[in-house]
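Entry for iron/sulfur cluster complex. Fields follow.
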Amino acid sequence: MMGKNSGQIDVFNSMIYEKLIPKDHLLVKIDTIIDFSFAYDMLKDCYKDLGRKSKDPAMMLKICLLEYLYNLSYIEVVSRIKTDVAFRWFLGLNIDDNTPDDTTISHFRIKRLGEKRFHNFFNEIVRKCIERDLVKTKRFIIDSTDVAANVNYPSSKKLLCNAFRKLTKEIRKFNADLAENQLEAFETAIEEEHAKNEKVNVNRYSEIANKHLEYLYLKTYDELQTNEKYRESFGLLHDLIDQYTNNKKDKIVSTVDPDARVAHKSPGNVKRGYKNHIIVDEESEIILSSVQTPFNVGDEKKLVELVDQVEENFEIKPEELSADKVYGTIDNRSNLKDRNIVANIQFYNENSREIKIFGIKEFNISKDLERVTCPNGITTEKYTILKDKKRNQPMKSFKFDKKICLACTLIDQCLRKTKNGKSYIVRKVDISTRYDAILDGLDRAKTEEFRQAYNKRYKVERRFATMVRKHGLRRCRYLKLVGAKIHITLANIACNIIRMVNLLDPSHLAMP
Ligand code: SF4
């Protein structure tokens, strides 16, 4: 059952704490600003009515927070609680009270809280920022940063071997002989392959692994129906074989953390792990919402989700939203337009195109999307409605009169030639039926207000930098996506709490 500290630090201890802890200590300020008793209500469903009393959930929540406020591991935080009087005071402990051990903290984090309740904790802190009128709704900013998974990344061949060994480890638990035989047979087959050929590629490894997996499927069919851990390692090896055989883009990079993904952050800059997508209030720099994904999920896919979350959780929406070019898809721009949110999103520079053929931007498209005028001043109203297969949305395909084009002096800049090079292809301009949002964006990008708003995006970078430097964001402490979500959410919470203290007490200049 839920246990609660008496909340009473006795007179003797109070005197000691008062003498030793400075009034401007960070934890004193946090304690003045935030009442953590919300934890009792938030966690009441996690405890049974009967049984042994648990550790106080508000205290346990504060311990998780201390780890990220001071960038300590859960083992380090236990040592600090033992010796640091400010920590003990913050947790409501007397000098001689017992402290929770690292196993209890780990159990509380994984079993009691889990991803959803950490998310509620995050929302509770944001709600407090809104109640204190710290969050303005003039302009929000969206961006993402990488968070490395806490694992090493073996080569593709080693990854397959690791997955096979992991599978046989699970088999050993219910059939030791089968596990030994299969592992030996697999390793022998690989060795023989190397003896035959100087170079053995990963596809050959996959073929060998697949042969054994098919055998194991038949041999252990019943176990696969009931044994979840075995099914998990079986599935992992199956997915790895599939990714190499079919050259899948969505690549598993570790058997220890199979949810981590790899992608290029910029040309030549490969990152592996997860992403922290956030939306912040430009003025206060408070993080209002966050979504955590494997690293290969595109930033632009999370814009609507972030805006939705802020609106659903706190019933607020901004007048404007600033974001990098990558977020400027038609879907994002039209979604923001429909919500009456001005998009401060730049467009990609198209000057780098190799073949200089007039792009859509060289054509003048009427606001009602009924007419298109080409660079030679010819206007067409002829269009057919087609389906944009990529977006599964309708689009208008405008067509120019070929006879007029053949007499045009700009023909070589505008029309492509047929394959044999003897004729020209009719000029078409395809526009989404939501191109109105692009036209608005192009108009907006010419304004001084846009320039000023766009230049403020450094503020979101500043949040990321603080979280990396002070709250250990750069590398996940826990495994798999669920662990990454907890790690990232706690770093976001710590960052918001420090920001809250700074905003409510500007004299505290030492803080980030
Ligand atoms: S080629 Fe046709 S569409 Fe292109 S600029 Fe000339 S007249 Fe306009």
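NOTE: The chain has four domains: 11-133, 139-149+273-347+450-494, 156-245, 373-431.
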